[in-house]
Design a protein that fits this description.
Largest sheet of chain A: 4 strands, parallel
Number of helices of chain B: 2
Number of strands of chain B: 41
Order of helices and strands of chain A: HHHHHHHHHHHEHHEHHEHEHHHEHEH
CATH class of one domain in chain B: Mainly Beta
Strand content of chain B: over 45%
Oligomer: heterodimer
Helix content of chain B: under 10%
Structural class of chain B: mainly beta
Number of domains of chain A: 3
Largest sheet of chain B: 5 strands, antiparallel
Radius of gyration of chain B: 23 Å
Strand content of chain A: under 5%
Strand order of the largest sheet of chain A: 2-1-3-4
CATH superfamily of one domain in chain B: Peptidase/esterase 'gauge' domain
Helix content of chain A: 40-55%
Structural class of chain A: mainly alpha
Number of strands of chain A: 6
Chain lengths: 414, 397
Amino acid sequence: MAEPLKKEKTKVVDEGIDVGISRLTEEKIESVINTVLETETGARLKIYVETCIHCGLCSEACHYYLSHDKDPHYSPVGKIKQTIWEMIKKRGRVSPEFIRRAAIIAQTECNMCKRCAQYCPFGIDIAYMLSVVRRIIHKLGVTPLYIQDTAHSHSVTMNQMWVKGDEWPDTLQWQEEEAQAEIPDLRIPLEKEGADIMYSVIAPEPKFQAQLIYQAAVIMHVAGVNWTMPASVGWDNSDMAMFTGDNEVMGRLKRAHFETAARLKVKKIVMGECGHAFRSVYDMGNRWLGWSMPPFTIVHAIEFYYDLIKDGRIKIAKKYKTVIEMHPNREHNYCCCAGGGVINTGPPFKMTRILGNRVKAEQLFETKTKGAEVLVAPCHNCHSGLHDIVHHYEIGLDIKFFGDIIYEVMEKPE
Amino acid sequence: MVDSRSWDWETGEKKIAAIVNVDEGEFNVCVNGQAWGETVFDKIWHLRFSPDGRLTALVSEMGEWTMAVDGEAWENKFGYIWEPCFSADGTVIAAAVQQDMQYAMVLDGKPWEQMFANMTYFALSPDGRHTAGAVQVEDVDSGEIHKFQEGTFTAAMDGKAWDTRFVNVWNLAISQDGRHLAAEVRLNLYDYTIAVDGVPWESRYTTVWEPLFNPVTGTVVAPVREKGMWVLAENGKTLWDRRFVQIWHQMFSPDGSRLAAIVAPSYGRWTVAVDGEPWSATFTKLVTEAVFSSDGQRIAALAKDDETFRVVVDGNPWSDAWDMAWKPIFSPDGRNVAAKVEKTGRYTYSVNNRVWSTSCDAAWDPVFSPDGTLLLLRTVEAGNYVRRIVPVSDIIG
């Protein structure tokens, strides 16, 4: 492994934060904080704040804390102490500089992975408290530039990559044509009313990774799935507005997604390999709109692939590789450090992510020493974040989606 | 609406069509087994009959796109064309088009004179004479967040943009007389309202949903969110006293005297509210496809609990639950309601809570005869397209 970088912090320049801070007054800060606390929070926040006994057991759960040699500033409780507790204690009377630090902590030093909630003896959802901070940061106009731009893209186009109305169906038709060179009767059925499944993806797929749509189409075709993709807005299931605290745009995105499924008369929505989008559709966005559960059954790609293989609808022609589990794993695994919108804060915070997840690099390196060659990451943000870690720490692992592997090993028509 | 009085209410052969691949990279449309015309296209998609029975599709030839109607392509060609829509009587076809990365609406083949850097939401007036879009009128590059927040979007009707600039513009509505345009607008990152002809309501909200013109009085009604709850507002003033967890898809009766909407009266419960009063029956998953009878006295909708749909009429859920159901259709006199329904891949019709005895491989929406006594049912059975005229009394007894 490469030597860890020096720990001295340099002041990050981010136009979203810097310009936002320059426009703040202490009166505005006080007003926004108290308005959010009084009108948008209630018993949940109060119980969390009053229940915490400051034991610090959450600390060991956080990859930032572990990666920074147990610096308490990076412990979950430490981040709460530096942000929402202080805002509550001072009744919103905090300085613009305090808000700058709060914005950086909430938006770039917490992935909202909620690993800490599992280690808290009271089950306090610390990430929820940091999401309240993000809401305040949004209301103050201090959100980092890159993710704010992504939220703007969502607001205009209903997708996160400024993909225009014509570019989306055009890309699907292009991928259909590409795939027909391999399987001549393959279709990517657009606007097929009454299909069983609407397949939705996140915008990086049409923008940068169109081959993933190709691969999904091959899997759907071979499995004989009655599926469709919409040609209108509502095709993108992603949601960076959820992570900037822009709940109103989050709700708008999810409404478009669900109403597109309703318009197409499908029975289920199958989502591509993405983690945060599932959270937005299954937990956050639907509930903001008033649904206790989503109006349509939501199936994540991994579950969908599992069902297809279990039911024999796709057959595996050759063994890929031997699975080597990393440790810790499953719900105790370390976050990729890209999730929660952190990678979407862009280049100014790239090193925050990489240095904040040295522990992941150590975990991956250990797994590699056991023989692992490929790292499977069923999420675009994980994929990109882990790529940065693998590259920076010189670990030497290929990173693949499940779809990449299934496409490679499945039986396909001759 | 289509005038079904002019239809042939005797059974007989009608048209059925499909896109066909005739050779490598060559496509045509097959209508009742015959090719659509001499021209073959590189690509064809979105094959649809217009409400007046013309057959339309989006077609590409030599890398350029346009609309073809009954086999004839429009003269004007574009870089891309999508989201076609028809006027209620089907005589007019509109779509969004892109040419040289500039965007506009096209109406019966004629694009707006003014094109825009981006266009995101589209509308066609009830009479089909006017089109509108949410358009970008100020240049802004990706990453220029503060410039974007000053307002780079507005709405345009027939290519003429409003002078006002907004952060965002969504969901446009054109008045019944085609003279006014309303839209959801975002004034800054936090304040939303409705703008009519470019003028925002004075009231500000935490967010809003789609505006709707009263077809008779011309007032504008929209769901608006205040203090975490939704209310219905008319011209910027609260209209319904009652607050809801959610309100959307508001609709006026044809005479404009009654107003209904899909609502969540409490968290996780959905129903229809009529003039502010929700039905007592509520549903957990979804309420959708609400519709007034033509006399405005009755309302039908679809409701979903767990994984199944029911037809609900005037608050009363029908007894049969389906894997899928389609928008209920009232007879012209409002006395009868019919809906296409599906269970385990078999399609049939439910009429006044009675199920038709035949199940089919596929089905289209039912159509009532002008006097409401007959139903036109179009199905696919054992691989054959079947067109039946069935007395309503045969189904409801």
